[in-house]
UniProtKB/TrEMBL annotation:
Source organism: Streptomyces eurocidicus
Name of the protein in its database record: MFS family permease
Keyword presence, Membrane: yes
Keyword Transport: yes
GO molecular function, one term: transmembrane transporter activity
Gene3D superfamilies given in the database record: MFS general substrate transporter like domains
One of the Pfam families matching this protein, by short name: MFS_1
Subcellular localization(s) per the UniProt record: Cell membrane
Keywords tagged on the record: Cell membrane, Membrane, Transmembrane, Transmembrane helix, Transport
GO cellular component terms, semicolon-separated: plasma membrane
Protein's membrane topology: Multi-pass membrane protein
Length: 426
């Protein structure tokens, strides 16, 4: 398989895989570590994870802002090093106050790393960013699976040393990711030089002084003053809710409101990973251009609505109907996840002016970060409301897709169309 971005694109895939292996090790055991090693109670763990997650919301805009001002490669490596230090520091204390500070720093690094990795991939893959995003998500999901399986195997052992070992493994993944990052080249930045798309397509064409003017000739656009981009980011908070459906909503609904066997829950999560690995790359064709991405918002709406209805049906008093409903819901929300990942990557870049691409993508990163805080509340509200709650949940996300489709069109009503120069061309 040809990887967009050349050698740096391949290295970034390795970085994503290694990073997610570590995340799989820690994500599967974090609560157990804080319970059996740090000796925290349930309420204290909730405070720790909630507060650190809230602080992490600042990570994407901060990382994006810095990316427009300093070289991206060393910045990404430094953030990986901060994550490693924060992870290792958790081993040094059981004091809740110190753990809060350490976890907050780690959360900031996690969220900043996410947007910086996206920005690097966008720059090295250029016009093939949709395909690269799909391949990158596949590598990341494989990493999650490997890390989770390794954690499950390690937990067959006894004693707190196992939890400490898994945390050290998470730390080493960040160290290796930082080392691999330093082997990458610095990608061209649209904040430095931007040429016209016509010149990029026809290297022999003449370039006027105005066309070759540096991007810094005027003040860089400010995403916090761009009402359309802020509104777009606000709609993204809702469309990222598939994450909370799989983390909280589907497992909790399955065991509390359906007659399906509890053993089905982990199988549904495996189904999610398998579908992403198998189909994320083919789904990349739905986001090859801004117009294609905008058109995909309609099937995305249908997927969300189908998932909500299927969860409502799964409450039927029949294990077979419940199992079928949960399986259909997991499939529909996975399809929604893959479609939205493709659409979101393309539109977030296409709507970002080149001179402030990092700042804009940092603001866009707030959508996923905020969802991680409010998403569990949204899905638990649907659960407490019952079957009608899930129908309303799916219909609400479908309506948000339609609202976003209207939002991202050009002012004259045509589909959004942004030339490839919005990424980086010299």
């Amino acid at each position: 398989m040809r990887i967009p971005g050349g050698a740096d694109g391949r290295r970034l895939l390795a970085i994503s895989f290694v990073d997610r292996v570590g995340s799989g090790l820690w994500g599967a055991t974090a609560v157990l570590y804080f319970t059996y090693v740090a000796g925290l109670g349930t309420a204290q763990i909730g405070i720790l994870l909630g507060a650190s997650g809230a602080v992490g919301i600042a990570g994407p805009p901060l990382g994006g802002l810095l990316a427009d001002r300093v070289p991206l490669r060393p910045l990404l490596a430094a953030v990986q090093a901060v994550r490693a230090l924060a992870s290792l520091s958790l081993l040094t204390t059981t004091d809740l106050r110190l753990l809060l500070v350490i976890a907050a720093v780690g959360s900031l690094g996690d969220r900043a790393s996410s947007v910086l990795t996206k920005l690097y991939a966008t720059r090295v893959a250029d016009d093939e960013r949709a395909r690269y995003q799909a391949i990158n998500r596949t590598a990341a999901n494989l990493g999650w699976a490997v890390g989770g399986l390794a954690a499950a195997g390690a937990l067959t052992g006894a004693g707190t040393a196992v939890y400490r070992g898994l945390l050290i493994g998470d730390t080493l993944s960040f160290v290796l990711a930082a080392a691999l990052t330093l082997r990458c080249g610095e990608p061209p930045s649209p904040a430095h030089v931007v040429t016209t798309s016509a010149t990029a397509r026809c290297p022999g064409a003449a370039t006027t002084p105005a066309e070759a003017a540096p991007a810094e000739a005027g003040p860089a656009p400010n995403p916090w003053r761009d009402r359309r981009y802020l509104a777009y980011t606000a709609t993204e908070i809702a469309l990222f809710l598939d994450d909370s459906v799989f983390r909280v909503g589907l497992p909790l609904w399955a065991v509390t409101a359906t007659t399906a066997p509890h053993q089905l829950v982990p199988l549904l999560l495996v189904l999610n990973s398998v579908l992403v690995v198998c189909f994320q790359v083919p789904f990349a064709r739905f986001g090859t251009t801004p117009s294609a991405a905008r058109a995909t918002l309609l099937p995305l709406a249908a997927a969300f609505l189908t998932g909500g209805i299927a969860l409502a049906v799964s409450a039927a008093d029949s294990p077979w109907v419940a199992g079928a409903g949960l399986t259909l819901a997991a499939t529909a929300f996975t399809v929604a996840e893959m479609l939205h990942a493709t659409v979101s990557w393309e539109l977030s870049v296409a709507l970002a002016p080149p001179p402030a691409q990092g700042a804009y993508l940092g603001v866009h990163g707030l959508g996923q970060a905020v969802q991680r805080s409010v998403g569990p509340l949204a899905v638990t509200a649907a659960i407490t409301t019952g079957s009608l709650g899930w129908v309303a949940f799916g219909a609400g996300l479908a309506a948000m897709c339609c609202a976003q489709r209207r939002l991202v069109r050009d002012r004259d009503g045509r589909a959004l169309s942004v030339p490839s120069v919005t990424v980086s061309e010299h």
